[in-house]
Design brief:
89 residues, globular, mainly alpha, DUF2285 domain-containing protein
Length: 89
Amino acid sequence: MPSTKASSVADVAPADDHVVDYDRAHSVIYLRLLDAAEEGVAWEEVSKIVLGIDPGREPERAKRAYDTHLKRAKWMTTNGYKDLLEGSP
């Protein structure tokens, strides 16, 4: 899996009902998470490479960030994209 430099990834992804600036700024990370999940890549590897959080040093933080960002990435594909198409600020 090619490396993606994470840009200030929060410990927990947003859970808003609309797309927020964080989503826009991290859209590439969301895409990488979806690709990795589809390929069956272990969450530990994805956390380290894509999110920039070492699961060996911070297992709880890494897992929480992975789970919430993957959930948000999936939400973007089912709901969030509508905001983007409508040009929501």
